[in-house]
Amino acid sequence: MKTPQQHGNLVWLGTPAFPEAARRSLGDTQLRANLRHATGTIREKRLAVSAELDDWEELRRSAAAVKRATLRHLNQHLLRLEKSVTAAGGTVHWAADALEANRIVTDLVRATGEREVVKVKSMATQEIGLGEALAEAGITAYETDLAELIVQLADDRPSHILVPAIHRNRAEVRDIFTRAMGQWGRAAPPDLSDDPRDLAEAARVHLREKFLRARVAVSGANFAAADTGTIAVVESEGNGRMCLTLPETLITVMGIEKVLPSYRDLEIFLQLLPRASTGERMNPYTSMWTGITESDGPQEFHLVLLDNGRTATLADTVGREALGCIRCSACLNICPVYERTGGHAYGSVYPGPIGAVLTPQLAGVEQASSLPFASTLCGACYDACPVRIDIPRILVHLRAEAVEAKRRSGVLPTPEALVMKAASSVLSSPVRLSTVQWLAARVGRVLGRGGRIRRLPGPFRGWSEARDTPVPPAESLRAWWLRTGRSQGEGAGREGS
Ligand code: SF4
């Protein structure tokens, strides 16, 4: 595993640019088989349960409307949230970037005198590299989500928003548990099988002692209601619920875009999220809390509101739509590119279509200039998204930004840019266009076989090897028009007048 590095606001893995990383992933047949099976299964379930609701499309439209309206007045909703949480006995902290958020959380844990915390699965804490920051401060963070536990034990990186270990099959998980569980606590049974029930039981026993011992928990948040100060976390296993209720201190790190104006808005999102993410009708565990409740649950609650590039994203009228994401991962599961390359190729904690638009905005388009091109623009992500985020539109917008950033930095133009420039010159001059068409027809006559050119010479050879190029016609439309069409057209015009 490569050492995580901080690039701008995001923990960046230091992987190569997407095309090279994707090429490596494509050669891993086991990875592709694991992904095909896992994404295909979730996809089928999502389609089945969303089709059960007559008002699915209305729910999607409502969610998109709420998110867009909230983002327009984000500052007001956040201030209201701060007031509500504080009134309910919690403490709100504001973090401009990953460094500040990590420092706040580390100081809060240190103040308790504890050297270990239990963690609820959270993308925001992955984004800022909180686990690594705590480790540097001598604090051990135990992942308690089953898939996150697999990733942690394997010293691996997550490859999916919802199922971080989607690239592992159950035989690999059995090997990881047998090899590594003992180094982090209670060891797995030596005769552990790869039956999912046995694997889940081994994880349950391993985690139980940590839940009972932990005095501090760290979580993310799916939603926060500004009017009541209520925070919501949804999950499937119940391990998050253990972290949110047993420890004395709870620290929640939440991206500022997760706020909703009112508690009532949850009725939309709690119908959409489970169906779009895991293909379930409702989340098995929906935990909600409002500040502190005396003698019940954590008696100290801190909410860290994380910006980390979100305010800058908000300033982009096209790109800001990505902040409406509720991290359901439906766009990953439907994406033909993700299904073949897996999440590691994206080199970010946010893989897939949403990662391709979110990472360049949070980290800076220069840091992730290949990601907006990691798509066929087929539009399946837009159709699947429960919040109707127009990912293809944002991708095209970011592609233009990436090209502009390269031009500004003085990087030599790519072969594609040179071809585009030449095409622009030819298409803007009728004389040049006629000359090129005449030349292409002659070249086609020499190189073509059966109406196709199999291989072009020179620098076009690599391009043409993967494609069959039709032989250009002996006479272009333009030449044909000049020879026949103009006189017929003129005649028709005269008759009509
Ligand atoms: S962009 Fe839409 S489909 Fe993709 S993870 Fe976010 S909410 Fe889900």
Folded structure, characterized:
The chain is α/β, with parallel strands linked by helices. It has 2 domains: 307 residues, 3-Layer(aba) Sandwich (Rossmann fold), CATH 3.40.50; 82 residues, no CATH class. The protein contains 22 helices and 14 strands. The strands form 4 sheets. It has a 6-stranded parallel beta sheet, with helices on both faces. It has a 4-stranded mixed beta sheet with strand order 10-7-8-11. A two-stranded antiparallel ribbon has the order 1-2. The radius of gyration is 27 Å and the shape is elongated. The termini are far apart. The C terminus is likely disordered. Bound molecules: iron/sulfur cluster. Iron/sulfur cluster binds next to helix 14.
Topology of this protein?
Blueprint: E1 5-7, E2 10-12, H1 18-26, H2 29-51, H3 56-72, H4 74-87, E3 91-95, H5 98-112, E4 116-119, H6 123-128, H7 130-136, E5 140-143, H8 146-153, H9 170-184, H10 196-213, E6 216-219, E7 223-225, E8 230-235, H11 239-245, E9 249-255, E10 259-260, H12 266-277, E11 285-290, E12 300-306, H13 310-314, H14 330-334, H15 336-341, H16 352-363, H17 380-384, H18 391-409, H19 415-427, H20 430-447, E13 452-453, H21 461-465, E14 469-470, H22 477-496
Parallel strand pairs: 3-12, 4-5, 4-6, 6-9, 7-10, 9-12
Antiparallel strand pairs: 1-2, 7-8, 8-11, 13-14
Helix pairs in contact: 2-12, 3-12, 9-10, 16-18
Iron/sulfur cluster (SF4) is lined by residues 276, 325-331, 354, 384-387, 389.
Helical proportion? Answer: 40-55%
Count of alpha and pi helical runs: 22
- Enumerate the strands of the largest sheet in spatial order, edge to edge or round the barrel: 3-12-9-6-4-5
Mean pLDDT: 91
Bound small-molecule species? iron/sulfur cluster
Computed CA radius of gyration, to the nearest angstrom: 27 Å
CATH topological fold name of the largest domain = Rossmann fold
| Secondary structure category | alpha/beta
Tell me the major beta sheet: 6 strands, parallel
Query: CATH first level of the largest domain: which class?
Result: Alpha Beta
Low-confidence stretches: 491-497
Using the alpha-carbon principal axes, give the shape: elongated
Q: Count all strands and give the number.
A: 14
The CATH superfamily of the largest domain is identified as NagB/RpiA/CoA transferase-like
Number of domains: 2
In whole angstroms, the N-to-C terminal distance is 76 Å
β content, as a range? 5-15%
